[in-house]
Amino acid sequence: MRRSRLGRSGLHLSPLTLGTAGWGDQVDDDEARRITEAYLSAGGASFSAAHAYGGGEAEQMLGRLLDDVVSRDEVVITTKAGVGRTAGGRVVDTSRGGLLGQLDTSLSRLRTDHVDLWMVHTWSDDVPLEETLSALEHAVASGKARYVGVSNYLGWQLARAATLLQTVRVPLVADEVELSLLQREAQHDTVPAAEHLGVGLLAWSPLGRGALTGKYRHTVPADSRAARRPEAMAPYLDDTSRAVVEAVSTAAEGLGVTAAEVALAWVLAQPTVASALIGPRTATQLAPLLRATGLQIPAQVREALDEVSDV
To answer: Model pTM greater than 0.85?
Structure first.
């Protein structure tokens, strides 16, 4: 699994980054170890976490694996700040104090003195952007983060943030956005902005929240995300989405691969995408995802997928 350059920065990521959003909730320590060992054996070296994942347990689990399963210096660790969980639900705090406080907590959980890439988890109108970005500047200056970026920023938000950071000579190198054959909104403004600015994209939910694997073609498994959160999955299971899923499945059958491989390969072929985030719950689920890095979708098939998903 050869690493890809993140935008115009000097940071290189594995084409598939192992996400930990389900760790501590759907993935326990033993399974996390099996998944990590399989991922590393395939040549993967990029891990994605966030202060909010698993109520903090995801970062702690990853921290316990570092230097036990693999040396810290051999992997790229990404984490995000700005979102937290309380008894009342999701809380967004992109203030300088809130972000830096979460960074210190993340470093403690991860058992490291720095992360390779630190990102603001989401945009917020409640805090001036200049204040939010001052936390990124401080993180780089203090050595707690080697590179900085943002997550879920629209094109104009990304451009504004990158321009402001340029004035203090701190490059903004990444934007983590949702991108898949079922969610192509980022292509309208974020992808062109990132390409112009030299910012690399990390694609989250490249499998359309699991729908593009074909698991929902005939039924909704009882242990699936659609069963747990039907309202969140509804846009990915409507008639339009079903047509895309059928097209992906047909392409996969013709190519002799899985639907997940086709969906991931399509994302990895998009301009400015340096890595796609995957979140398998078991080592068995990981295996077919890893094969996507070697799949080249024929131009005719890619054009057909572009057409059926262009809504």
So the answer is: yes
Listed residue (81, 173, 178) closest to 132, CA to CA: 81
* Angle between the N-to-C axes of helices 57-65 and 96-110, in degrees from 0 to 180, rounded to the nearest 10: 40
**pLDDT 10s digits, 32-46:** 999 999 999 999 999
DSSP string of 77-132, one letter each residue = EEEEESEEEETTEEEE--SHHHHHHHHHHHHHHHTSS-EEEEEE-S--TTS-HHHH
* Distance separating alpha carbons of residues 51 and 36, to the nearest angstrom: 19
Cα angle: 214, vertex 218, 220; to 5 degrees: 85
Instruction: Classify domain 4-210+267-297 by CATH number.
Output: 3.20.20.100
SS3 state at 225:
helix
Q: Please report where in the chains the tokens 């570092």 appear, as a residue.
A: 66
- Which residue did the predictor score with more confidence, 219 or 11? 11
Report whether 68 contacts 115 (CB < 8 A). Answer: no
* Residues in Cβ contact with 31 at an 8 Å cutoff, skipping those fewer than 6 apart: 281, 282, 283
Buried b (16+ CB within 10 A) or exposed e, 236-247: bbeeebeebbeb
Mean pLDDT of the region 237-251: 95
The residue among 23, 6, 3, 25 whose CA lies nearest residue 14 is 3
- What distances in angstroms separate CA 226 from CA 222, 235, 284, one per listed residue? 8, 11, 20
Query: Can you give the pLDDT at residue 176?
Result: 98
- Here the tokens at position 184 are 């192509």
Across the strands, what pairs with 277? Answer: 17
Residue 222 pLDDT > 70, yes or no? no
Query: For position 279, what pLDDT does the model report?
Result: 96
Closest C-alpha among 222, 227, 210 to residue 280: 210
How do strand 145-151 and strand 115-120 relate by DSSP bridges?
parallel
Determine what percent of the chain falls in helix, strand and coil, rounding each to the nearest 5: 45, 20, 35
H or E element: which one contains 137?
helix 129-141
